[in-house]
Amino acid sequence: MANRPRLMGASLSDPIYEALRADILSGRLAGGVPLRQDVIASEHGVSKIPVREALRQLEMEGLVEFRPRRGAIVRQLTEKEVLELIDIRLALECRALELAVPNMIDSDFTVAGEILEEYEAEPSRERWSDLNLRFHHCLYEPCGNLRLLAMISEIEGRMGLFMRLKVTEASGLERPMREHRAILAACRRGAPKEAVGLMRQHIETTQKEVAASIRRASIRSVTDGA
Amino acid sequence: MANRPRLMGASLSDPIYEALRADILSGRLAGGVPLRQDVIASEHGVSKIPVREALRQLEMEGLVEFRPRRGAIVRQLTEKEVLELIDIRLALECRALELAVPNMIDSDFTVAGEILEEYEAEPSRERWSDLNLRFHHCLYEPCGNLRLLAMISEIEGRMGLFMRLKVTEASGLERPMREHRAILAACRRGAPKEAVGLMRQHIETTQKEVAASIRRASIRSVTDGA
DNA sequence: ATTGACAAGATCGTATACGTTTTGCAATGA
DNA sequence: TCATTGCAAAACGTATACGATCTTGTCAAT
Asked: B69 contacts in A (CB within 8 Å)?
């Protein structure tokens, strides 16, 4: 396209990384889709080199897979990997919550409560997963450990919309909501151990539901993909 | 150098990534050292492009830092970050141990015990940290969650020899050894909860010792580096 | 002696170019 | 009809080249 002035700030690969990442996480780019380097390059008006750098970064993040001499594709998660990732979530989120509870203040409870109300009133399943994420994050944020929070987000990224579809479809609204309220109540009481125990059960149940959901969809979801 | 036949297998950035990673983790490349792209390129007999890709991957891993237009340097960890990473270790390793205990068999206990004996007999402080790592990993391996194990290794990588020096120097041999034996005993008894509790204390104590050690060394270690 | 301006060299970041490998497809033969 | 062979085009991966920016050393002015 037009030769823009090129103001030479940070790297050109950064916006490409962000754009691809958003497209993968949102599901606009489905698993297995090939990522043609020169297509992406011309879409962004750059050469292949920043594109390759962005793809390499996504590869490290687990969102993209390189096959030698055959380019990159959007990574397809296996059933096993999804369950493993939920297990990691379990560990990280419980720890974050444990650290967060003693640091929580009134406004934290208020915000969390508001999210739950919005959640309950929301008819669109699409947005449930979003509200779910927001609720969880809002509980972890006071933990004060930025790396831990980043890591939790990373795991969520890796699971992408796989979880987001499976879980919210499989779990419905009622059960998670009840558990969310119980967790928030424990936080209000300033009882980290109880809150962590509830969170643990919450995520374990989710894990089992995802496992069941995968078992049912079984081979189908792989074969008739796209 | 010599134009080798170029057998065009996987990417040229892979060996560079491995080499740089090993140099950083081993401490041969200290924190803050600039990583000149064309120097590395000519050392490996390639152009800058695969070097940049390797550096980007290391950046995602947290081992390298890019400053715009000023190239890459080996990432220097702050005191805060080290403590945060130990906290993440705490979460991941306790979960791994919890999952591993029910899967352990006799040979696992034997191997772990042998490492501890070797540990106890080892006079060289240099090797303590190595044996420490091996002991821990050997406990986690039966957990069956490959991502979790990979993540634990990644965290260890990020802490690099910072931990390895500080901790083993600060902790000495006696205290960790006692705790290791207690943890192993709990595993033998098939008591995951107890084992996890002991592991948790073990890592928390380590964290406190590192905090103290950093507090003492304070600014010095940053200013008079290299 | 310290400060500031400036020029030369070093270094970065990316576009372009090119050899290599994969892939799609048509022609051939069974 | 189906499998096989042989291109031609597409796509990959990297070396080279080049402008932009940063660093460093020199020198004049305060």
From this structure: 8
